[in-house]
Recover the amino acids of this structure.
């Protein structure tokens, strides 16, 4: 608009016209002010502001119905009142509920206008009779439980693989929970029917996923975004490990004594030192090679069997008070040292 | 004054029966004296342990108590019993002491050294292997071995050990019956001839520190042959033996290379000594958690501490556990501490101390200190 004004000015028209143009675009307030100017009147100083004081409204009585909760029959069908999950509503719940934090000694606020009660999820739609009724309704779609699977053992033998996954139910904008993708597979190692070699190889492949005490192999997958994918992946892992452990590779023949999964006394230094010791006690010259030591018959050495057992158990079962004591007893017998006296 | 003396005397007399034994010769110790203290003669103590052999805290305690009293405990009696019935024609038997920290392995060893000394053994005692391999003072003397390629010598430590050996076996060395069987040529002008007394060899190592490690190597070989010939019987005691088998030592070569224990000449020497390819001797070793760094102290059992290599080296050995105090030993020790005024206060403190120290000898001693 200002551009137009400038234009008019440059033409040099009389200022009256210019003013009129201004008027055309002025606000209504200006018009009102002009009106006031015309009917001039003194303002009255109203000190007590009597004129502004609003007259007190007379409370109008309206007939409020009593709360719905108070009108409910005690033997009503609750499932109809609260059929599905929803936020708490005080008038629909005929219970004297209180919820909220208060200083000590006071009662928590009641159910009406109580935000605390509305915040928390409720299970008012899942009362036992309702669940029962719903189960009854679903029953027509179920099949009968197989009679052979009457015990835990039976289930374990027929279905050795156990799949564990979690579903999450919560009140948030999305019903997806990323944790529900995780799938765990559990299987007893004994049900795989592996032989000595493949069992050892399988254990090396699964590493710390095997629990010796329970004999369970636990494989967990969470790398795929969806549960189904993880489930398939877990299946694949078990299958791959199983078949790989059945294979015997060429390089497995290079296994040395350090790679052994158990302690074989006959192939170890312990037997060698025992044989050397025995030959020395008999003043014989020992010029045996390694194979001779492995082949050497220990039955001619007195008390060697107990010693062999003690060393093997010390190595295989780990060191403990018991195994070390057994070792001490076996060695004392072998070397002809008197036994330890037990002091009471 | 007189009454005070009388009181002390009577107190000692009244308690002497309960925790002390007058039998100061370990050969005579038997099961009846379990838990009793016997006092070491000052002179023997000086000759046997003046260069180490007692733990530091015990050494301090002997100073405080003005006497060296060792408790006769079951492991030592067991060992004495074993040694007495050993067939000395068979290869040497190796005994390994093991047990928790502070349970008295070193003191059991000291007791056994006293026994060996009394019994006329030639003693080869290494007070603490970690002193060589793990303790690095500012000026640790190290040099490359002249005779063994790629090996490291610890000449000062070796010489110190030779002095220790000399003081421990003064009587036997002075007798001069032990002769060198081979000729050793150290340099152009120095050599030890066949038939020279063993003390000359030792003396050479002490005066010519450069050759100390080689002297020890020669000495060990000589002693092995002497024992085989039954000219002497030998008692080997090595405390903290498992330190030889920890993969690394704290030593560095001048080129900042970490030294492995098997690269130290002393290690090879003592591993050679602890093999069972000789007779007429006793080998007593100890596997101690304190001899290795913190990361390998999870268990006190011998296989764990000795590692695979050490176990295979020693196998078959006789493991001997040195445990905590039994009821009887604890009471005897408590009354000994009361006698020495190390422990005072009402008698109920002992019950409490037994729980707080879990009957561990070292902890018990420590906890009594402020009482």
């Amino acid at each position: 608009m200002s551009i137009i004004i400038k234009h008019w000015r440059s033409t040099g028209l009389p200022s009256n016209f210019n003013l009129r143009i201004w008027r055309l675009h002025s606000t209504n307030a200006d018009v009102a002010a002009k009106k006031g100017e015309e009917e001039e009147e003194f303002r009255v100083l109203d000190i007590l502001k009597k004129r502004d004081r609003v007259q007190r409204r007379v409370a109008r009585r309206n007939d409020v119905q009593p709360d719905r909760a108070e009108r409910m029959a005690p033997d009503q069908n609750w499932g109809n009142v609260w059929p599905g999950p929803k936020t708490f509503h005080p008038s629909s719940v005929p219970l004297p509920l209180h919820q909220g934090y208060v200083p000590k000694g006071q009662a928590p606020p009641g159910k009406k206008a109580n935000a605390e009660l509305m915040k928390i999820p409720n299970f008012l739609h899942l009362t036992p009779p309702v669940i029962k009724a719903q189960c009854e309704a679903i029953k027509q779609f179920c099949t009968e439980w197989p009679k052979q699977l009457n015990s835990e053992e039976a289930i374990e033998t027929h279905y050795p693989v156990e799949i564990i996954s979690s579903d999450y139910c919560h009140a948030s904008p999305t019903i997806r929970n990323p944790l529900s993708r995780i799938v765990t597979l559990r299987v007893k190692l004994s049900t795989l029917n592996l032989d000595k070699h493949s069992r050892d190889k399988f254990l090396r492949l699964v590493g710390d996923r095997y629990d010796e005490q329970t004999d369970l192999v636990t494989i967990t997958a969470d790398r795929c975004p969806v549960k189904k994918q993880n489930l398939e992946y877990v299946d694949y892992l078990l299958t791959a490990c199983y078949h790989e452990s059945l294979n015997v590779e060429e390089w497995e023949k290079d296994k040395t004594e350090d790679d052994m999964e158990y302690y074989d006394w006959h192939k170890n230094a312990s037997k060698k030192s025992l044989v050397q010791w025995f030959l020395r006690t008999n003043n014989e010259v020992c010029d045996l090679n390694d194979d001779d030591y492995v082949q050497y018959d220990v039955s001619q050495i007195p008390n060697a069997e107990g010693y062999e057992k003690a060393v093997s158990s010390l190595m295989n079962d780990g060191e403990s008070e018991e195994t070390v004591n057994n070792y001490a007893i076996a060695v004392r017998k072998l070397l002809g040292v008197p036994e330890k006296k037990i002091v009471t | 004054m007189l009454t005070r003396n009388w009181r002390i005397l009577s107190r000692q007399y009244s308690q002497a029966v309960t925790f002390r034994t007058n039998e100061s010769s370990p050969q005579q110790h038997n099961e009846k004296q379990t838990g009793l203290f016997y006092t070491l003669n000052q002179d023997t103590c000086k000759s046997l342990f003046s260069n180490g052999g007692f733990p530091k805290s015990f050494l301090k305690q002997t100073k405080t108590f003005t006497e060296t009293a060792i408790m006769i405990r079951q492991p030592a009696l067991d060992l004495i019993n074993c040694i007495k019935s050993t067939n000395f024609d068979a290869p040497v038997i190796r005994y390994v002491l093991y047990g928790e920290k502070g349970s008295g392995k070193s003191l059991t060893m000291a007791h056994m050294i006293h026994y060996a000394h009394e019994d006329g053994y030639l003693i080869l005692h290494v007070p603490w292997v970690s002193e060589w391999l793990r303790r690095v003072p500012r000026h640790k003397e190290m040099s490359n071995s002249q005779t063994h390629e790629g090996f490291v010598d610890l000449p000062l430590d070796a010489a110190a050990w030779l002095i220790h050996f000399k003081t421990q076996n003064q009587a036997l060395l002075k007798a001069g019956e032990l002769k060198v069987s081979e000729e050793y040529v150290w340099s152009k002008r120095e050599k030890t001839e066949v038939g020279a007394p063993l003390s000359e060899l030792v003396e050479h190592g002490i005066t010519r520190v450069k050759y100390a490690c080689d002297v020890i190597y020669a000495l060990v070989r000589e002693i092995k042959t002497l024992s085989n010939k039954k000219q002497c019987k030998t008692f080997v005691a090595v405390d903290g033996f498992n330190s030889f088998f920890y993969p690394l030592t704290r030593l560095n070569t001048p080129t900042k290379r970490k030294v492995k224990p098997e690269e130290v000449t002393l290690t090879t020497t003592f591993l050679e000594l602890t093999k069972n390819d000789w007779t007429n001797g006793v080998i007593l070793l100890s596997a101690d958690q304190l001899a290795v760094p913190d990361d390998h102290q999870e268990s006190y059992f011998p296989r764990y501490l000795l590692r695979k290599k050490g176990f295979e080296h020693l196998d078959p050995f006789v493991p001997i556990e040195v445990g905590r105090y039994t009821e009887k030993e604890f009471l005897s020790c408590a009354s000994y501490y009361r006698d020495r005024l190390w422990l005072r206060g009402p008698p109920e403190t002992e019950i409490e101390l037994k729980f707080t120290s879990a009957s561990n000898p070292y902890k018990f001693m420590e906890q009594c200190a402020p009482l």
